Every structure is written in C-alpha cells, then in structure tokens.
Amino acid sequence: MLTNKIIKTSRTLKVFALAGIASAVSMSVQAEQWRGWNIHPPSYPNSMALESFAEEVAENTDGRIEPKVYHNGVLGAQPDAIEQTRNGALNFANFNMGPMGPIVPATNILSLPFIFQSPDDMYRVMDGDIGERFAEALEEKNLVALSWFGSGARSLYNTDHPVTTPGDVEGLKVRVMNNDLYVQMIDELGGNATPMAYSEVYQSLKTGVIDGAENNYPSFESSGHYEVAKYYSLTEHLILPECLCVAKSSWDELSEQDQGIVREAAQNAAVEQRRLWEERAETSRQRVLDDGVEINEVADKSAFQAEMQPIYDDFVASHPDLEALVEDVRAAQE
Ligand code: GTR
Asked: Which keywords accompany this UniProt record (predicted)?
C-alpha cells in the first residue's frame, strides 16, 4: 500500500514537473501581441506599408512579435493615439508630424508652412542627420521613430471658390489638425480655423460647420471630402513627414536582435509606402477630377509665403533653442 502510494506520488510529481516545463517552454515562445494604430482605410499606401511591416516582423522574429494593424482610426483620434503610444497602451503607429507639435515642440519645425521646397527635399532632410535629431526629440517623449513616410503636399480645398490669392481665404471656416500653429496659419490668411478630428471633417463639410480643409490628394479622395468640397487649390503649404513609430516601452523590451529586425522592417515599409504614394497621388488626383473637382494652380505662392513670416518669427521667439534646427533644415535644401 505504502509503496503504491509512494509510486503514485512520484508519478504525480513527474506529471507536475513535465507540466511545469511545458508551461515554461510555452511562456518563452509566447508571442508579444502588438497593437498598431492607423487612421487610414486598408487600401491606402500607408496602410499597405504597415501591413507589410507587421508581416515582416512576425516572420523574421519567428512569431515572437505579432503586430496587428487597426485601420480606419478605430483605436481613436490621432492626438489620443499619440498619448496611448507614448504610455505603451498602443505598441506602434503611423503618425503625421502635424498633430505631434503640441507634444514634441521640435517637430513643429516640420509644420512651419513652406519649410520644405518639395517632397524630395523633405525625404533627403529626414533621411539624414537632421531626421535623427527629430527622432531624438520624439524618443524623449517615448516614441521611437524607425522610419519616415511621405504624405505629399497639403493644399487648401473648400466648397465655395478657387483660392488663388491669400485674400481668397478671407472669412473661410477651415478645418485644421490639432496644432495651434495651423490656427495661426489660417488666421494670417484671414480665415477662421477650426481644429477638428479627421473623422469629423466629412460631416462638418456637408453640414456647413466648416467651408473647407487642407490635405494631400490621397486623403482628400479617400476621406470622401472631394464629394462635398469641389475646389482644390494647389497652395502646397505643408509637406509633412510621417513616422512609423514604436512605443518606447515596447522597444526597450526587445532583444538587440529583435530591435534590428523591427527597424529593418520599418525601413522597408517606408520604401514601399513612398513608392505606393506616388501611384496613389496620381490615381486620387484623377479620381477627384473625374468627379468634377476643379483643381487650380496657385501662380504666386510667394504671396502666401509672405503671410507666413509672423509664424516663423513667433516660433523662433518662443523657442530660441530650436532656431538652429530651423536654419539647418533650410540650409540642407540650398
Ligand atoms: C492625413 C494624414 C493623417 C491625418 C490627416 C488629417 O494626410 O496622413 O495622419 O493627419 O491627414 O488631416 O488629420
């Protein structure tokens, strides 16, 4: 009897020991589930690039990290998502640098109207040492920028008339992204700026809460704003970089090897995004034209630029520590 009991007990112990090993093994291979924020619909260039990022990371880490992208802004508006990624509630995201300004003052340099002469200049600047300086500023706020996406040039559109001179903006109610700098931008042109979440713009245009907004061709088209706002004027006042950013807390948990894999996947995603962007910008332009949008050139952009001077002056006066970086961004394009 006694021997029997001892045998039974030792069997039970063995079973427990094996179960223990099994759970230890399963713990060590348990995947990190990463939640990623994305504002755009799945067919948008950025969304497709984020999906490739997710796939490449899962594959090359043998499933140690399993990123999942949530499209269409279902995880919240951009300013909230920035906060959530900073505190680690979200693990990665594609953020525009526009709404980043209130949190990372240095990134407001990228929002100074006409700071970049062309999207190519923007890429060149952001891919070099200057881009690193912006990445450092982001990291201080717990966001690790691994690569830079493009977003073309943003132009003004509205429901009423073509804009060819600053005077044409007078009295227009224009939606802007969440950033005081853009409020000032529209004020300087004599319009009334309304900061508003992207998801609310369509309805607000339709109901006349606002007369217009500003964005690039792919967003103007994919958001449906072109269905309501039939005048798209090529002011091209903002050329904003976007990041593929990872929450610092998620990043710091990774082994050096996995950090390398994630960084490489983000850089590959940026190459893909930039390629897809070119195609999509043209498709979107054609689509809105076919739908009856009137696109007009702005012959004298310098008139708009001149109105923006107070924004530069105020920015440098309130951030003297950032003046050198403003100058460096400009000098890098000469
Ligand atoms: C898009 C950008 C989004 C968002 C949006 C907006 O061009 O890709 O991240 O910033 O504009 O106007 O809110």
From this structure: Signal
| Ligand 1 close to Cβ of residue 219 (< 6 A) | yes
User: Of the residues 219, 222, 232, 277, which should be mutated to test ligand 1's pocket, given the most ligand atoms within 8 Å of the CB?
Assistant: 219
Question: Is a pLDDT exceeding 70 seen at residue 150?
Answer: yes
- Mean per-residue pLDDT, 105-118: 98
pTM for the whole structure: 0.91
In terms of domains, do 200 and 171 share one? yes
Residue 63 is assigned to a structural domain of this protein: yes
Q: For residue 319, report the phi and psi dihedrals to the nearest 5 degrees.
A: -135, 65
Per-residue model confidence as pLDDT tens digits over 162-177: 999 999 999 999 999 9
Domain assignment present for 16: no
Q: What would the pLDDT profile of 38-65 be if each residue is shown by its tens digit? A: 999 999 999 999 999 999 999 999 999 9
Helix (H, G, I), strand (E, B), or coil: what is residue 97? Answer: coil
Here the CATH number for the domain that contains residue 315 is: 3.40.190.170
Query: 248-254, long-range: CB within 8 Å, 24+ apart, which pairs?
Result: 248/86, 248/88, 248/139, 248/142, 248/143, 248/144, 249/87, 249/88, 249/142, 250/32, 250/34, 250/88, 250/91, 250/92, 251/144, 253/32, 254/65
